[in-house]
Amino acid sequence: MKSPEGKATFQFAIRLFLILFAYYLMKPVREGLILDGGSAEIRSFALAGQAALLLIMVPIYGHIIKHLQGNKLFHAVTIFLASNIMLFYFLYRAGYDIGVPFFIWLGIFSVLQISQFWTMVSDYHCVESGKRLTSYIAIGGSLGAMVGSMFAKFLYLELDADGLMILAMIMLAIAVVIPTANVAMRKDHDHVDDESISHLLGGLKKVFDNSYLRWIAASVVLLNLINSTGEFILADFVTGEKSGAEIGAFYATFYLYVNIATLVLQAFVVRPMYQVIGVGGALISLAVFNLAMYISVLAFPVLAWFAIVKMADNSIDYSVANTTKQILFLPLDRFTRYEGMLAINTFFTRFGDLIQGGVIFVVISMLAMPTMFLVGVNITLCLLWLFVTFNVSRRFKIWSEKSEAVLKAEADVKGEGQA
């Protein structure tokens, strides 16, 4: 902890703790507002709407990061998002129905705020230090998510939605004002393509031009499509059995258990998993586990079992999958990381929601198929995702070797110059 690296890692973990504390205070509020008096279909279509908004935000953010970096960028994004919460607070107090817009906004918050945080962290770590320290930073996030869920579970009925919004704003304000380590930007070795940086669709162009990023994007789209389809199935089960405040209370309890499991996995499983089977092996194992879980639902198609399946699915997604995704970007140069991560963590992440909205519309609204049909859809998607993870794993190994070789060569040249 006394070393600059240890101090920076601890302070990154504190910030992520506060961000996810705030997010999980608001998450059961989101579910309660949109499902009480609404439906799982409305929730599904609201998810799809996020992708369209994020398509607009990607090039705007790509322009901003050329002028703001590190803490300045973090402060600007966090203050802006906190001011949005204040706006929703006043609208809710005035009696407006904010269910759909708040649902869409919180989804964008989760992607934009957390993506921006991890891109800031990636400036500090090379591949090797990232493998060692990213999981420790993520533990702070997992702890914040768990504590936030715990507060939401016990305070949801007492404070109501507006009270939890105020508490979330306080957490974000603290994240802005806490002191941070003096972290120098990591020196990248790759040439920066000025045309790519100034391109209107910055991050999207990066992804389409880079085969490695394309495979990562495909993996993220499939993962989120599987997860959001599972969320629809869960919401359909919940609205069939619960109503009113029971919905928000159910989700507060659900997210608490998810985040307890996430913390345990992040603290005791993720790093040892990387040491045993590597980053690529961890990614492949996620697809295998998801496939097994959805096959089990065919035998036990009830809320009690599916809630357990989704708890396992989400906790693994938030721990192993999220940490692995951040590490996959580390071999890349700074602007490729920033623009590629922003595009993948925002647009491509929510593009899975856009596809999911279309799937729900066709399967449920047009064809009037039962919800269990979507379980079969997810099983098929898991098989496709398994194929993609093999390709991502192979390319990560290649890019990591290239990055380490160039860094070693630069270190040798620097050593010769000093001699």
Q: For the report, how would you describe the main beta sheet?
A: none
Instruction: Give the structural class.
Output: mainly alpha
- Please give the count of helices: 13
Which range does the strand content fall in? under 5%
Name the overall outline.
globular
CATH superfamily: MFS general substrate transporter like domains
Overall helicity: over 70%
Keywords: ATP-binding, Membrane, Nucleotide-binding, Transmembrane, Transmembrane helix, Transport
GO molecular function: ATP binding; ATP:ADP antiporter activity
Family: Belongs to the ADP/ATP translocase tlc family.
InterPro entries: ADP_ATP_car_bac_type, MFS_trans_sf
Describe the protein's architecture and organization.
With 419 residues, this protein is mostly helical. It has a single domain, classed as Growth Hormone, Chain: A (Up-down Bundle). Helices cover 86% and strands 0% of the residues. It has 13 helices and no strands. α3 packs across α5 and α10 packs antiparallel against α13. About 4% of the residues have low confidence.
